[in-house]
Amino acid sequence: MCVPGTYLEPIRDWLVNKFDTQIRTIDWNKARFDVQPFLTNVNQKMLDAWSQDLFLAMLEKLP
Predict the structure, then answer these.
(1) Torsions phi, psi of 62, nearest 5?
(2) 34 near 26, Cβ under 8 Å?
(3) What is the DSSP letter of 5?
(4) How far apart are CA 3 and CA 1, in angstroms?
(5) Where in the sequence is the domain holding 43, given as residue range(s)?
(6) Looking at the domain assignment, is residue 60 inside a domain?
(7) What is the CB neighbour count within 10 angstroms for residue 18?
(8) CB atoms < 10 A from the CB of 32, how many?
(9) What is the pLDDT of residue 12?
(10) Does the structure show a pLDDT above 70 at 56?
(11) Does the pLDDT of residue 45 top 80, yes or no?
(12) How many domains would you assign to the chain?
């Protein structure tokens, strides 16, 4: 529990674990479909790359 006025230090392992769990539970086809209307036609092409593997690889690169 965080007390108002105090600093809560992020714990990398906890954060990575939470992101990993979330990335593995996302329906990537649905995510692409949900985001598509908010992007221009040019930017919509990047959605083709969205996948569990892509985001897990990005997660591994977090400092």
Answers:
(1) -60, 135
(2) no
(3) T
(4) 6
(5) 27-63
(6) yes
(7) 10
(8) 16
(9) 86
(10) yes
(11) yes
(12) 1
Query: One-letter amino acid identity for 14?
Result: W
Q: Does residue 20 sit within a domain?
A: no
For residues 36 and 40, give the distance between their C-alpha atoms in angstroms, rounded to a whole number: 8
- Picking from 53, 54, 55, 35, the residue whose alpha carbon sits closest to that of residue 45 is 35
Residue 46 has pLDDT above 70, yes or no: yes
pLDDT at 21: 97
Give the span between the Cα atoms of 11 and 14, in whole angstroms: 5
Two tokens, residue 62:
């977090």
- 30 is written with which tokens? 């649905």
pLDDT exceeds cutoff 70 at 54: yes
Query: Which residue intervals of 1-63 are DSSP H helices?
Result: 12-25, 28-35, 41-44, 52-60
pLDDT of residue 14: 86
The confidence score (pLDDT) of residue 24 equals 98
Sequence length of the chain is 63
